[in-house]
Write a sequence for this structure.
């Protein structure tokens, strides 16, 4: 692989991380992982729904389709740039209400939602029980929470973790590992129970996903996540070395015109006690 071809792939994904995330991550991993969370939520027309840590708004958009014009959807995320892209990507009716806020301190009234959804985010919350207690607060009695967290780390991403550690350092590599740290159904059940939920259930499911080829997926991932900041600090030759090592390691996952991966997904549900 020439340095010119490496530069061409890298430059293809030069945009803000939320824009790259929405354009490339959402259609593959995001959409696939959102489906079982939405199914577990059992949304009905007219329901009031919160998408917690909404990112660029995928789950909120899908929930809005399910609850229809008689329902309502709110999305919250701690990152203003993510919410900005969510607003820009989600025009039309029913309109989603967006807020920039941490999961542990939501600017929302008590008992104001029938369902709270949280896809691919709980593992990142600094105080998971506090965040889940806040979820219980904003849920109406009898309201349902549905959560999806990926893991354990699949071999493809374990390879990337090692490459990132080698080329960008341990702190950057820590992000790759952190994505997959909440993969034990019993641990998720324990968190929900500690937060005061009832009817707690969690199970681990397969989650086969299709990815683009090695070079493309590498830069989609690096430029669509917080790792973009670490990449911006390395020079041209270091980028080439990083890509060459990753592409070589990932050849074993190539399947046709892309790659196959199964990160697995814990799908958990619970209710706020009481009658709706």
């Amino acid at each position: 692989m020439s340095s010119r071809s490496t530069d061409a792939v890298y430059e293809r994904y030069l945009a803000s991380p939320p824009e790259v995330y929405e354009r490339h991550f959402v259609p593959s991993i995001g959409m696939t992982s959102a489906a079982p969370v939405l199914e577990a939520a059992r949304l009905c027309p007219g329901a009031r729904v919160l998408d917690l840590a909404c990112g660029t708004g995928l789950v909120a958009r899908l929930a809005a389709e399910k609850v229809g014009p008689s329902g309502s959807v709110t999305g919250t995320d701690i990152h203003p740039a993510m919410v900005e892209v969510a607003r820009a990507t989600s025009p039309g009716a029913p309109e989603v209400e967006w807020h920039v806020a941490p999961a542990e301190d939501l600017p929302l009234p008590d008992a104001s939602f029938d369902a709270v959804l949280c896809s691919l985010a709980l593992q990142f919350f600094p105080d998971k029980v506090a965040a889940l207690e806040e979820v219980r607060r904003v849920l109406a009695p009898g309201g349902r929470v549905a959560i999806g967290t990926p893991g354990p780390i699949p071999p493809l991403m374990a390879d990337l973790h090692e490459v990132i550690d080698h080329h960008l350092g341990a702190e950057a590599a820590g992000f790759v590992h952190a994505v997959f740290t909440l993969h034990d159904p019993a641990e998720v059940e324990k968190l929900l129970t500690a937060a005061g939920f009832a009817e707690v259930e969690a199970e681990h499911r397969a989650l086969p996903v299709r990815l683009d080829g090695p070079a493309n997926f590498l830069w989609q991932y690096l430029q669509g996540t917080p790792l973009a900041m670490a990449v911006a600090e390395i020079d041209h030759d270091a980028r080439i070395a990083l890509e060459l090592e990753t592409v070589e390691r990932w050849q074993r996952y190539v399947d046709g015109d892309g790659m196959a991966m199964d990160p697995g997904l814990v799908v958990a549900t619970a209710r706020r006690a009481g009658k709706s």
The mean pLDDT is 93.
